[in-house]
Amino acid sequence: MAIWDDLKYDGTGLIPAVVQDSENGQVLMVAYMNEASVRMTLETRRVTFWSRSRGKFWIKGESSGNVQHLVSLAVDCDKDCLLVAVRQEGPACHEGYRSCFFREATADGEGLTVVAEQLKTPEEIYGARPGA
Q1: CATH superfamily of 3-126
Q2: How far apart are CA 14 and CA 34, in angstroms?
Q3: How far apart, in whole angstroms, are the C-alpha atoms of residue 38 and residue 5?
Q4: How far is 60 from 90, CA to CA, in rounded Å?
Q5: 130 contact partners, CB below 8 Å, separation of at least 6
């Protein structure tokens, strides 16, 4: 039985994937995969997700150039979550930060503080936005 056949997907056929930098362990992002994107990721070694908002596959870095190369794919004990270790090229976050987790809650819990350096602006990554 192939690994993707043995996973426990949710009611919509998706499984959460925590993406981690293979060199330093930093969590870069969380996204979703389905059976086909797990298979494509393992076959191509380019991390591929299922976009819930767009309803289609997306290969990380396909439009931004900030590619994720698969190093390893681990499955949790319940087989309902993936840990995807990658070699990240450029920012992982679409807002231009190394990690999507670039904000922390303030001590009083009333707000958020940016705790990381923005490596690129979204415009530098994707070009000018329509209407901008």
Answers
A1: Phosphoribosyl-AMP cyclohydrolase (3.10.20.810)
A2: 5
A3: 10
A4: 11
A5: none
**What would the two tokens of residue 75 be?**
């499955």
Tell me which H or E stretch contains 95: none
- Which of 100, 129, 125 lies closest to 114, judged by CA? 100
In tens digits, the chain (132 residues) has pLDDT values of 788 889 999 999 999 999 999 999 999 999 999 999 999 999 999 999 999 999 999 999 888 899 999 999 999 999 999 999 999 999 999 999 999 999 999 999 999 999 999 999 999 988 865 444
**Do 20 and 28 form a contact (C-beta atoms < 8 A)?**
yes
The full DSSP string for 67-91 is -EEEEEEEE-TTSS-EEEEEEE-S-
Cβ neighbors of 71 (< 8 A, separation 6 or more) are 22, 85, 86, 87
